[in-house]
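Students often ask why we bother predicting the structure of a whole assembly rather than each chain alone. The short answer is interfaces. A chain on its own may look different once its partners are present, and contacts between molecules only exist in the joint model. In this exercise we take two input lines together and write out one structure for the complete complex. Read the inputs first and try to guess which parts will touch.
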Amino acid sequence: MRKEVPMFITILAALMIVFGKYFFLGDQVKVLNNMDKYFNISGTFALLIGLISLTMVHGMNIRRRKEGWYNSVVLLVVMYGYLLLGLIEGNKGTTFRWIYNNAFLNLDATMFSLLAFYIASAAYRAFRIRSWEATVLLIAAFWVMLGNIPFGEALGPWVVDGKDWIMRIPNTAAMRAIQIGAYVGAFAVAMRIILGIERAHMGGRS
Amino acid sequence: MNIFERMQKIDPRVIYIIFFLVLAIPVLFPAPLPLATTKETKMAYDFVEKMPEGSVLWIGADYGPSTVPEMGPVSKAVLRQAFKKNLKVVIFPMWQDGQALMQNFAEEIGKEMKKEYGKDWVNLGWRNEAVSVLRLTTDNILSATAGVDWAGKKLADMPIMQNLTALNKDQVAGIFEFMTGNPGAAQYLERVVEPKGVPMAVACTAVSAPGEMPFVRSGQYKGLVNGLRGAAEYENLVGKPGKANAGMGAQSYGHLAIMLFIILGNIGYLLKRSR
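Now the answer. The structure tokens for the assembled complex follow.
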């Protein structure tokens, strides 16, 4: 029963989505609308599960005085403190928005901006013309980088025209092939799940 | 270690310091750089420009603080253009951060252009599992959003919502989607653009642009604003150069620095190999 019931629910949900999306009657009785509402409700419960799980994991870290346990204290204080502030003040609250705009936004942007330095260092290390393929890749990358900045334009219109051609023709062709391949793969995985061949999501083996 | 090996193995700390200076100096002392407009950016600009006065522009705010340097300036430029044309702006975030970020930008531009919240623009707010909520808005906006905006204010009382009940081509002139990943434009294509026939233009980060380009070629996007450069072009089209133009200096010198390092590394590699 532990396997059969989840499998039955999976198949039923999949068939309902197919029915709602591709059949006229399904559209008329608004099957997808109801499915979306159920999805919203279950997703909201998942948020609660996340909150509980995070509290349990970090609570355990603090109780057992694991390495870096004080980070867990900070996490729990900030998480519950901000949650409480949000509940009291609401989205529009002055303090709630001040903290978000002046702390979170800057911290998040700082974390991401560090990537620029790693990318610069990684590009320097990785881009070596070891083969013809690598050479083509390097030329394309240089051309697009140069075409994206005013200095490239200053060299002549051919730089920007060339960059646009790379983006519009070879890039589009390659991206289409990758995307179609990925979607065919996703369809195959979906079919395996619906037919019960793939069971990893239920904790079993496929 | 000989000179060729040194050229291939520059200390990362040296790269970081040079890169920091190359990025920081143009930001601290911005100098305007000439910039031509690419076809895709002009298409996106014209898409909004051709909307009839008083019609609804649906804005998808699907990015976070990490991409504000790229997405913030173009968001402001589009809002400025929309308010200038007296379009009614409806903000719908599928990213939780998009709600606060676009609210900040709309408040700033709205105040500058004397636009009133609830009458000229509204923020529908983020909901959990927002992709499902997006599809539900194509049927009934009030039902999908539980009838309240981002701050819990009743939508039914707002003048902007009096003639707007659902996201479809009869009520919404177009969508301008600001995206950096998933959920983003793909969800709009699948749930709104194709089934409901609402046209859409997209602004995305430069790193996402290669993946989005096929949809411009297929005609499914009515325009594409590509990264910081696209944002700078859009600012120029709107006639108010801002942070994107200022950032182009940093991007330009940053690109040149990376290219120089790569050239240096390859010269070292080729010379060492030839020996």
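Check your guess against this: Chain A touches chain B through 55 residues (CB under 8 Å).
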